[in-house]
Amino acid sequence: MNATLRALLLSSVIVLAAHSTAAFQTTTVEIKEPAVITLANLFRQSDTVALVKIVSGDAENYNIAIYKGEVIESFKGAATGTTIYFGPYVGERIGWEYVLFLRTVAKPIAPGSAPSAGYGTIHYSEIFNEGYSSMMSSYECVFSAKADSGQCDDAVRVCTDYIVLPKSTPTFPPESTDTDFGCRFVRKKSFIALLESLGNSKQK
Known about the structure:
With 204 residues, the chain is an alpha+beta fold. It is built from 3 helices and 10 strands.
C-alpha cells in the first residue's frame, strides 16, 4: 500500500469518527424524572426546611410562579417568623400550610414588567425533585380507626413512592396500596417529630 493510499484511508477514518462523535452528542437526552430519596437525604440536600403558611402568590409578574410565605416552624435554614419567597411550581394553595424542602437560588429574580411590580427584585428558594419536596398539610379523616388519636387528624401529604420515610412511620393508605402519584398521608405530629429529630442530629 503506497503512502498516498494510506493517507487517504486515514483521512476517511478520521472523518467517520468525527461524524460518529457528532451524532452521539446530538442524541444526548436529559432525564428529569424525580429521584427516589430518603427523608434524611432530602433534609441534607435542602438549605431550608420549614413549615410555611403561603400568604400570597404571583404567576403574572415573574417568568415562574413565586410564592410569599411565613415560616411557622423552622427545622433548618430560615428562622421562625420570617418571610420567604419560593417557586417555581403552580398549584400551591394560598392560605394553606406546607412542609417545604428548599434550595437557595443564588441569582435574585426580578419582575418582567416593572422594577416595582409583584414583590420587586427578590432572593428566592426553589422547590426541587420535580416538586416532590413540597408537602401540603391539611386535616384528613383517612387514618386507622383503631388508632388512639382517632381517624381524623392533621396530616402531611408525602409522595412516598419518591420520598422514603423510616419504616416505623405509618402511612395512610399503607405502602401496599396504589395511590395517585404515589402520595399518602402521615400524621402531622409524627412528621414534625421526624423533622425535629433530623434538625437536632444536624446540630450535633
